[in-house]
Amino acid sequence: MKKLACFHAHHSNIEHIEASLRNMDIELLHFVDPGLDARKNDQSFTVSDIQKKIGDTLNWIASTGVDGILITCTFFTAYLNEEKLGISIPIIKIDTSLFNKICEKETPQTLVFTNPETVKGTMNQLDMFADRYQKKINITPILIEGAFQLVMKGEKEKYKRIVEERLENLLNEGRDTPLSVAQLSMAPLAQHVEKKTGICINTPLNLLESHIREALNRPHV
Q1: Cβ pair 205, 183 in contact under 8 A
Q2: Considering the entire predicted model, what is its pTM?
């Protein structure tokens, strides 16, 4: 049985990944580093420091005998310096399958965030992804103010209420504009709103299982 390491910024993401990958015959090992996210606003903690810490942690995780690493935090993926990583196993970013879905359309779309520190980095990553595959996208980022702090403080019900209400409002405002959510913590809430409204919302969990299967089965040097 293959082993997939999951690198999280908060323990609350574990349940989302466990539920999403429950049909896969793999062993999940979870690594959580909330301290890295907590230091993101520290002026003495530079971009180079962030990239080094992420790289060091990924190298440590890779040394534990896993077959691949899934990074579930968009803050981590936004600052990941892949060129400096000397890791032979697959590094799977939570937002890759979402980027694929977004790049299917050239019409205006909306991408919703709760973590303000990931907006710029994720949008840059998305633009580079689209350029790499020669896709044209027209996407507007929207931040749900004050929501992410609730997740980090464990106030799940308040977070759930705020995010679901904002997503419903966005769907009502632009029913013809495809809507996606960036953060993993938003995925189950988006799925609930989708069932309630009957309108599809793209999440990082869409196609994640197939993306992981492909990455783990791909030959690596």
Answers
A1: no
A2: 0.84
